[in-house]
Design a protein that fits this description.
The chain is built from six helices and 19 strands. By secondary structure, it is of the alpha+beta class. The protein starts with a helix and ends with a strand.
Length: about 400
């Protein structure tokens, strides 16, 4: 039997009338209206107004937000046009769109829980300053002066990040200590993390991919945990060209831009342990083709290789061990010239350059710095194939060849 809507409303209306006359009901409705007005209108306005002031007074930088939207019922915060600049106006961090989805279930888990953290069009500018200081390090110092460090008893904040994503990002790096024009940009950058948490012994998963400006791409996939920090996975580089990093080396080396293309794959582990940071690479497989290294405007290369293969390599930074059991060089050619003063042209490939970096203070034996300069224990390789070498003297231009 279907009950007519008119009869249903007729039976409900008196109950609603009685409910609306109760003071508790009217107070609840009023509180919800005030909560909605504060959440939808007042807080976004205050955020847009306060952030530039906070950046200027507390961080000594320039801040800007174009638009803020907050849904106080779904606990979703969205920000458009986020920008943070250095005091002189140089760009630092910017994002086209930021979104934060907070879960009310945090109250039950006793951990800050976020369903989604998303950054679209993230633009990150990394700079090594003329004095050798890193710009993000200076920014971190500014935040540390504002945020109280948790005590040892309380430990780090309990946090669960279910999903983090960076899409269509760009990372630009400049080294002013080397050269004002030394810079490179990696774009687009896409990064995704799932179930990252500061809760002990819990792991999350991530995937990262980016394209190099000179050609080639980088892909990382694996798992990570924050406490204690450890990340493991697979590294894959495809089609990498020396031009990607040449802007940082051309002032140091008297060479034409190297040619070639590389493919690299390895398993890796990066962790923070009581002994220090640990980095290991295993099962390194690399292949290079068309490698050509020569002086500017030279017709004959200093070193040329049709192909290079590395198989089964391992690298351990803590133990300072590098092992490559199988290296194959195909169709290789090397040449050298001796000038009138007896110097080989290979000795003149490095260019003198100015440096503004401070001179490091001597370190006592046994400290971390002196340990980091310990000699490498092993660097092994197996064989070379199809190799030729030429030697030219500037005095009589005689040439000897050996194959």
């Amino acid at each position: 039997m279907t009950v007519p809507i008119e009869m249903t409303w007729t039976s409900v209306r008196p109950a609603l009338r009685r409910l609306s006359r109760r003071r508790a009901f009217r107070s609840t409705v009023a509180a919800l209206l005030v909560y909605a007005l504060v959440g939808f209108l007042l807080l976004p306005y205050l955020a847009e107004w306060y952030f530039p002031q906070y950046a200027r007074e507390r961080l000594q930088r320039q801040g800007e937000i174009a638009d803020v939207r907050l849904n106080p019922f779904l606990f979703i915060l969205e920000v458009d046009g986020f920008r943070l600049r250095e005091a002189d106006g140089q760009p630092l961090v910017a994002a086209r769109h930021l979104a934060v989805d907070f879960e009310l279930s945090s109250l039950l888990r006793w951990a800050w829980t976020f369903a989604d953290l998303r950054a679209d069009g993230l633009d990150l500018n990394l700079v090594t300053r003329a004095d050798g200081r890193f710009n993000l390090g200076a920014l971190a110092d500014s935040f540390r002066s504002e945020v109280k460090t948790p005590s040892a008893e309380n430990g780090a904040a309990r946090m669960l990040l279910r999903h983090i994503a960076v899409t269509d990002g760009a990372v630009k790096y400049r080294d002013l200590a080397l050269d004002a024009n030394a810079s490179t940009t990696v774009t687009p950058v896409n990064f995704e993390l799932e179930n990252v948490t500061t809760l002990p012994e819990r792991e999350g998963h991530y995937a990262f991919n980016a394209e190099f400006p000179g050609g080639g791409s980088l892909y990382l996939q694996g798992s990570t945990r924050i406490k204690p920090f450890e990340t493991t996975g697979i590294l894959s580089i495809q089609g990498l060209r020396p031009a990607t990093f040449w802007t940082f080396l051309q002032e140091r080396l008297r060479l034409a831009e190297p040619q070639g293309e590389w493919v690299l794959q390895a398993g890796y582990r990066f962790a923070s342990e009581p002994a220090g940071l640990q980095l290991t690479l295993k099962n390194i497989m690399a292949y290079g083709a068309g490698f050509d290294l020569r002086e500017p405007a030279a017709k004959t290369p200093l070193l040329a290789l049709d192909a290079v293969e590395l198989k089964g390599g391992e690298f351990d930074l803590a133990r300072r061990v590098a092992t490559f059991p199988d290296i194959v060089l195909r169709s290789g050619q090397a040449s050298a010239q001796v000038a009138e003063d007896g110097r080989v042209n290979w000795q003149t490939l490095t260019s003198a350059r100015k440096t503004t970096a401070a001179v490091a203070k001597p370190t006592r034996p046994g400290t971390a710095q002196s340990a980091s300069k310990a000699p490498w224990k092993r660097c092994a390789f197996s064989r070379a194939m199809s190799w030729s070498m030429s030697f030219t003297s500037a005095s009589d231009r005689r040439t000897m060849a050996e194959s």
